[in-house]
Amino acid sequence: MKRVLTGIPVTAEIVRRFVAGETRDDLIRVAQTLLDSGRMVSVDFLGENTTDRAQADAMVAEYLSLINDLAALERSPRPGIEAPPVEVSVKLSALGQALPVDGPAIATENLRILCTKAAQADVWVTVDAEDHTTTDATLATVRELRREFPWLGAVVQSYLRRTERDCRELSGPGSRIRLCKGAYREPHEVAFQRAAEVTDSYLRCLEILLRGAGYPMVASHDPVPIAAAEDLAVETGRGPGRFELQMLYGIREAEQLRLVGAGYAVRVYVPYGSQWYGYLTRRLAERPANLTFFLRALVSK
Ligand code: FAD
Prior knowledge:
TIM Barrel; single chain; binds flavin-adenine dinucleotide; two-stranded antiparallel ribbon; 10 strands; 46% helix; 11 helices
């Protein structure tokens, strides 16, 4: 697990703050610990931008084994929370969406295979949001498959100017939507650039989703949206079984546990696999303090 990130060698210790490990065994150990603590999990097998069919097929095979292993984990039910505690998150680019011939159709078919298996195993599936050029194709795939798998979730990003409109369309009964700020570098024409604008957009989208009829998944570490979600849940009478708070593995662990203690449904997004480079780059870019953490870990080696 060694590579170079922006000129600095990345040690296993740094990667492991944000990534459960390179193997499925590593992941399963971490997932069980999270479940034992009352948290739920959404697992991402790392890999994106598949360039050939064989890679997409390998991704499907790993996800099928993953769903199998996750289904065997011990679950600790919590009062009032009926959501399956185990979910997988998947990127359509990893399932072949960008392949030159029939990419979106191949990704849709691959996702159908995963959803069929997940439905048998009582595991949810949510489709991650990638860069804005993929948003229409990804939402079209989710819309199509929700006819067969109404619990299939999608992700929207509040930095995109279109997202408030998407939230209005996606806030109907049964719709499972994860709202995040967005992690890709996007142009001004399509995305808000200032942090305050992104947070304001997040709060507007949050209100639409929490006042709507679907199942919102509030994915943020930012205290402002989390407090707003708590307030809106009280105001709209949404109990812990009707929305989730979500955070990434390795970030704000104490806050995750506080929210569990307060009775909320909390899901942790846990990545694993050897292709951690792109994921880790986005995490380090989000917060300068992570770079300090990273350098401190290097010095102490
Ligand atoms: P920020 O404004 O970035 O952070 C607010 C505060 O949270 C910070 O001040 C700090 O206290 C803490 N914090 C935030 N990030 C870190 C960090 N890396 N390390 C330590 N502390 C931190 N993005 C996508 O584009 N597509 C997806 O499909 C997607 N799925 C996601 C799923 C989940 C469950 C989560 C939690 C995030 C997901 N993201 C996704 C990432 C998301 O878009 C943001 O990049 C990320 O969550 C940071 O935004 P924030 O809301 O936490 O707010």
